[in-house]
Every structure is written in structure tokens, then in C-alpha cells.
């Protein structure tokens, strides 16, 4: 399974508009972080994880091919703002979009033209599927399990795909979800910055989770500009933990 990090930044992206900090002015391409998204490819499936406002720019750098599933973690704009740009993928047929009940409701309110009985020509052909925590889906040769995590007080979804778990925007992990994260080869998880935040994990929180789960490889995502320079911060992480960056591809 090939996993490509399409975007590793927080809701404002990095560089942040108007900011002149060392990260936002860095010439290192690893410090340029589009909004969070990823793509999983196997011989039988192509799966998109979240579809934010940078989706079009991200996908111009990848092979154009059918999307077998779009897995949404929650309804916040930085994770769903690119859904209208799924229009070109409708040439392959309806695009299956999986989300929890709250997100499905919000999408129908925000994008009613996509779900009207009589759609106008050219709208993205989206087929919404409701997913609840612990639901299991088979998408080609990828077994997907939905995991409940807490984004502050908002319950959202993470996903396990075979032996990889993708979790973003998490502040806390309910105890009952830990069993679904046993035996991972790769953990992809959010780490906004070093200082506390009321709805997101810190780098230290993410490292503790990786140690608790005993995951061989952990990649940090949803990073803000206050985290620091990639070249410096990556060297300070525990063994097996790395800062991800846009365009990074791993095999798992």
C-alpha cells in the first residue's frame, strides 16, 4: 500500500498569509504545508482521506485516476472545502464519499446543488454514505475501520486502513478506541505545535500516543507554523517518529 501525504498543514496552511516568521519564510519545501489530506493506493483501490480547499492544487501533482472512496474525518472547512473540485472525477462515475451523520447533514446544507433531485450539468457526482464508529468497510483490498476520536468536545472520525491509522484534529482518544489501534505498522497523527491547544494534540501528546501503541513508524501531520522548522524539529523527535511533509510517499 502506497501512502502519499497531499497536505500536512493546519487550517491556515503554511506559510500563513501575512506572517514573516522563520517557518513561513523558509526556503525548505518541507516547511510549505497545504491543508491536511492524503491518498492511499494499492493494486485494487485508490482512497482519498479528506478533501480540503487545496485539493485541486494537490491532485494536479498526482496521477489522474478513479477515486474508489473519499473518507471524511469531519465537516470543518479545511477538511471538506475541496469537494466541489471532485467534478473531473465524475467521468469515472459517482464518487463514493463516506462520513459520519453530522458531516453528511452539514454537506447537504452547504452543497445542496450536489444532492438535488434535478442536478444542473457539471456538478460533482457524489454518493454519500454514512459511517459510524467501529463500522468496517471493504474497499478493494483495503479494510477500513472507523475510529471515534475527540476534536475538543466534537466527536469526529479517524480511520484504520489495513495496518495504517490516519487520525487528524484529535485532542483525546477515548479508551475504548485503543483496541482498534493495536498492531499498527504506521500511525499518521496530528501534532499542531508544542504549546497546549484546547482542541488539538501537541507534538508531545502525539509522541506519547505512538509510544503507548508501540507503533514502529509514526508521522506527524496538521502542523502549524509555530511548530518550528522541519529540519530542526524532525531531529528532536524520538526514534521512529517523523514530521511528515507534503509530497512524502511511504510504503506500508
Description:
The chain has 5 helices and 14 strands. The protein has a 7-stranded mixed β-sheet. It has a 7-stranded mixed β-sheet with strand order 7-8-9-10-11-12-13. The longest helix is centred in the last third of the chain and has 11 residues, at 203-213. Helices cover 14% and strands 28% of the residues. It is an alpha/beta fold and 252 residues long. The model has no long low-confidence stretch (mean pLDDT 97). A hairpin with a 4-residue loop joins strand 2 (37-41) and strand 3. The chain has helices at residues 55-59, 77-80, 101-110, 203-213, 230-235, and strands at residues 2-7, 37-41, 46-49, 69-71, 95-99, 126-130, 136-139, 142-151, 154-161, 164-167, 186-190, 217-221, 241-243, 249-251. It is globular, with a radius of gyration of 17 Å.
Considering the chains and any ligands shown, give keywords for the structure:
252 residues; alpha/beta; 5 helices; 14 strands; 14% helix; globular
